Amino acid sequence: MSLSPKMRELIETRRRRPAAIAEAAAARARPAALAEGSDRLMVIAADHPARGSLGAGAAGMAMADRTELLARLTLALSRPGVNGVLGTPDIIEDLLLLGALDGKYAFGSMNRGGLAGSVFEIDDTFTAYDAATIAAMGLDGGKMLLRIDNDDPATPATMAACAAAVGDLAAHGLPAMIEPFISRRVDGRVRNVLEPEAAIRAMSIASGIGPTSAYTWLKVPIVDEMERVMTSSTLPAVILGGEVADDQEATFESWRHALALPTVMGLAVGRSLLFPPGDDVPAAVDAAAGLVHAAPVPGAQI
């Protein structure tokens, strides 16, 4: 396996000097506080591998090569208008050691225990970041997945764990980014229901999770009737990318439309930009960032 000098150095540092991760976190050049920074956020999401979800489009193991994934992430983070990254500790720490997070926001992904395809998938145990570590590492917030299945008895435990995490993050003055779905099993596999009524119900439940909503954001998918869907909450929201689509122009147009809505403050997209149709990462990232920063600042009348 051929590795770049930077990757060889990263691997050697992890083996010989694990304390270098905390040092890199402490030395990271921090961006402006979220309340004082850009009115818009373009965030690259990279937390799928820790849940055992390695596919992107037709490539079932697209994210299995960590060197390749890090190369795409560092390239995406280097593009103009990209404000930050969302990832699990391994990804965030690799990027810290590579010096790719200076001046960028970094959001820690928290519950990755609902492994893709497992019988316990709805039981999204908090197996990655906790609020205390996010704060200690100087990260900018935490993200959690909340899938609600009326027929799965694990749903209440996931809701309770998310509520606790929202409170823990708020105690540190840090945003809690909740990604809510109404889900159901189809032929034994969990599927998210991407319909307006389901999105409204999921957002309504997520908005009330935890002892306070003061620091809660929502991370929501594109569905039909986004204008109606987004009136279900006053909380700040970012749009997630979802699966890699064959028609990238249609995807961009749907993002453009959503970014014009009052509560939408940006995009948090992973596979759609890291493994785009045609494999031109800079072009895909630049197009998405252009949409985010060209969009009007939220505040229009509902």
How large is the share of residues in beta strands? Answer: 15-25%
**Number of helices, where a helix is a run of at least 4 consecutive DSSP H or I residues:** 11
**Spatial separation of the terminal alpha carbons:** 55 Å
What is the CATH superfamily classification? Aldolase class I
Strand order of the largest sheet: 1-2-3-4-5-7-8-9
The CATH topology assignment is TIM Barrel
Structural class: alpha/beta
Fraction in helix: 25-40%
- In round numbers, the mean pLDDT is 93
Order of helices and strands: HHEHEHEHEHEEHEHEHEHH
User: What's the shape?
Assistant: globular
Largest sheet: 8 strands, parallel, barrel
Question: Rounded to an integer, what's the Rg over CA atoms?
Answer: 18 Å
Q: What is the domain total for the residues?
A: 1
As residue ranges, the low-confidence spans are none
* Overall strand count: 9
CATH class: Alpha Beta
Quickly give the CATH architecture. Alpha-Beta Barrel
Brief synopsis:
The chain has 302 residues and is an alpha/beta fold. The chain is built from 11 helices and 9 strands.
Protein model, in words:
The protein is of the alpha/beta class and 302 residues long. It has one domain: TIM Barrel (Alpha-Beta Barrel). The chain is 37% helix and 18% strand. It has 11 helices and 9 strands. It has helices at 5-16, 20-27, 66-78, 89-97, 131-136, 155-171, 196-207, 226-229, 248-259, 271-274, 281-294, and strands spanning 41-46, 84-87, 105-109, 141-148, 176-186, 189-192, 216-220, 237-240, 264-269. It has an 8-stranded parallel barrel with strand order 1-2-3-4-5-7-8-9, surrounded by 6 helices. 43% of the residues are buried.
